[in-house]
Design brief:
The chain has eleven helices and ten strands. Strands 3-4-5-6-7-8-9-10 form an eight-stranded parallel sheet. The longest helix has 20 residues. The protein is an alpha/beta fold. 43% of the residues lie in helices and 14% in strands. The protein starts with a helix and ends with a helix. It has a single domain, classed as NADP-dependent oxidoreductase domain (TIM Barrel).
């Protein structure tokens, strides 16, 4: 099967799953999608993180997560990001995706988070088993731990067809100097980093660098671990936010991120169905232009 055929098959599986889950004609329209620079394949621009939210080991306690993952796919979602650092999250994603029959629809990303070549390979093998796959869409070096070692392994795994894309991650501006060095030195497909209205450091050098180097960008911490919601507690979304089809603070924060041209996908984590549905609305309707983004930032700081 050629790469083009594989992409076509994945797109067909996605459409079939959405139609089956959403009742065919009643399925939600396709959300905003962005191209992965390495190859041009598109992925939906709002994904699903699993940090803390999917760390549920008991199968009988995963009902809410099953509902979230089912609805995520119904609404056109595909990108699910996890890590062995997240407790039982990988196993929860793999088990639920298999149970729902959507494993081949998802674009599954996880991470390697250990030191040493042998330990890294063993950990990635466990992730494959837990995520119910023969290969993974994206494997990332978590927080740059033993980065050079694992990137060498990932180049081998890509060549062997065990992973499709390779990348690196960090979650704090304290790691940006090293992240920038790796982005300049290594042939990366993806970088994952923190970016939000509360944490804008990435836009100064890393987001422009990602565009220049043709590296896809996954955004973590889009709500700054909830700090943004604390800043707007008791305040209504500005009426002018309707100009970008926005009626909640979650959409406000996510649309601001998605409007940056370097951002490929944002991955808010949740285990609550109403929050999932709210987040997914950010991938529909209009996005702010540069002037509107600055207005949004200024309104957030106003008291």
């Amino acid at each position: 099967m050629s790469p083009a055929d594989a992409i076509t098959r994945r797109a067909l599986l996605t459409m079939m799953a959405a139609a089956a889950a959403g009742g065919g004609a009643g399925a939600a329209p396709a959300p905003l999608a962005r191209a992965i620079p390495a190859g041009g394949e598109t992925i939906p621009a709002v994904g699903l993180g699993t940090w803390q939210t999917f760390d549920v080991a008991e199968a009988g306690a995963r009902g809410p997560l099953r509902d979230v993952l089912r609805r995520f796919v119904e609404l056109g979602g595909r990108v699910v990001d996890s890590s062995p650092m997240y407790g039982a999250a990988e196993a929860a994603v793999g088990d639920l995706a298999a149970e729902l029959g959507v494993r081949d629809t998802l674009f599954v990303a996880t991470k390697v988070w250990t030191t040493g070549r042998a330990a890294g390979i063993a950990q990635m093998e466990r992730s494959l088993q837990r995520l119910r796959g023969t290969r993974l869409d994206l494997m990332q070096v978590h927080n740059l731990v033993d980065c050079a070692t694992h990137l060498r392994t990932l180049r081998e795994w890509k060549q062997a067809g065990r992973v499709r894309f390779a990348g690196v991650t960090h979650y704090t501006a304290g790691g940006y100097d090293e992240l920038e060095r790796v982005m300049r030195a290594e042939p990366l497909d993806f970088v994952q980093l923190n970016y939000s209205l509360a944490e804008r450091e990435a836009e100064r050098r890393l987001l422009p660098l990602a565009r220049d180097r043709k590296i896809a960008v996954l955004v973590n911490r889009p709500f700054a671990e909830g700090a943004l919601f604390s800043r707007v507690r008791g305040r209504s979304v500005p009426g002018w936010a309707a100009e970008i089809d926005c009626d909640s603070w979650a959409q406000y924060f996510l649309k601001w991120i998605l409007a940056h041209p370097a951002v490929t996908c944002v991955i808010p984590a949740t285990s609550r169905l109403p929050h999932l549905e709210d987040n997914m609305k950010a991938a529909r309707g209009r996005l702010p232009d540069a002037a509107m983004r600055e207005r949004m930032a200024a309104a957030l700081d106003a008291r």
